[in-house]
Amino acid sequence: MTLYTLSPDDVAPLLEGLAIVGTGGGGSPSWGKAILEHDFAMGRIPSIIPLDEIDDDATVVSGGIMGSVKVLEAMGIEGVMEHWEERFELLEVTRVMEGILGRPIDHVVPFEVGGLNTPVILSLGARMGIPIIDGDALGRSAPETQMTSFIGHRISLTPMPLVDYEGNVVVVQESVEPTYPDELGRWVVTRGGGMGANNHYPMSGHEAKGAVVPDTISGALRLGRVVLRARQEGEDPVAAASEVLGGVLLFKGIVERLEEEEKMGFYFTVAHLKAVGPDDGRAARLVIKNETMLLSVENAMMAIFPDSICMLEPGTGRGVMSVEVTEGTPLALVGVRCHKRLREALESEIGALAFSAARYGYPDLEYQPIETLVEGFS
Known about the structure:
Layout: E1 4-5, H1 11-21, H2 29-41, E2 47-49, E3 59-67, H3 69-86, H4 89-101, E4 107-108, H5 117-128, E5 132-133, E6 135-136, H6 149-152, E7 160-164, E8 169-172, H7 180-190, E9 195-204, H8 205-211, E10 213-214, H9 216-232, H10 237-245, E11 248-263, E12 266-275, E13 283-289, E14 291-297, E15 300-304, E16 308-312, E17 330-336, H11 340-346, H12 349-354, H13 370-373
Parallel strand pairs: 2-5, 3-4
Antiparallel strand pairs: 1-2, 3-9, 6-10, 7-8, 7-9, 11-12, 11-17, 12-13, 13-14, 14-15, 16-17
Helix pairs in contact: 1-2, 1-9, 2-5, 9-10
């Protein structure tokens, strides 16, 4: 078995990469840094295992924390770390899942790659003493629990237990609509202290091998190392990131105007940008639902979720969080083709419903691959 054991030296490049592939969401890297550094200080060391090396009969689950960023910020990093030493809801809910399944869990796999939501799964694995699968369900971050490669490969989202901050335990045993567990989970958490955790997508190792997007944690670590090196050596970090990602620079400009709204636990934004540089004056429209969902330039569609639109700071290549985007923010937008397992998921009826553009306000929009929208994308 080939395990990669993370070290304190990996924290900075890993978070650098996770912030980029998180497409504006996935949680703040500052929180991810605090989680990882706290675990190392407590002697908890996470390790990752390649997807193809897990046993076919292994029991695999996913999960994550749920709740309001405002609640986390109000508690503060030190307060949350102290609370999690007393009650780590994500560990509690994972033990609930073990009880439901009637067997121990061998591996956890992140729901998404992002600056907070990947480190919290690494922490879970370290606390349980089990390896985390080097992969996730998206290769990016996404706003809703059903938006995964898993669901389109016939992995059931349910049963999905939830544990909130106050200690309430709710189990969604089955759901008719794939969006129901996520909606109910947010309702439960908002009425149970504003923070909690869920566990979901129980699967076998064999099923995981056909549904997980592989190598995304190690990929984020590699990406972060390249960007940091380019920054230190005076090279173009955006170009370096784009090359590692196999992406293309779609737009570079400044945010001129924002339309913003926070509702149902999501951060909705439409950012209107004006280009700078060779394309000076061109206009772009970026739709964000926690993460980037849709980009058009001069009214021509350029990228549609689940293909990625990575928001980078032009001078540094740093991944920009959605909540950081304000009027005057400079952005370099890099488009990246999603993994083939997401494309396969979209072909299923449940996958098409789960990823529907109606979830971010465009019910009549149909997904088109980025390589068909962007001339010269290979």
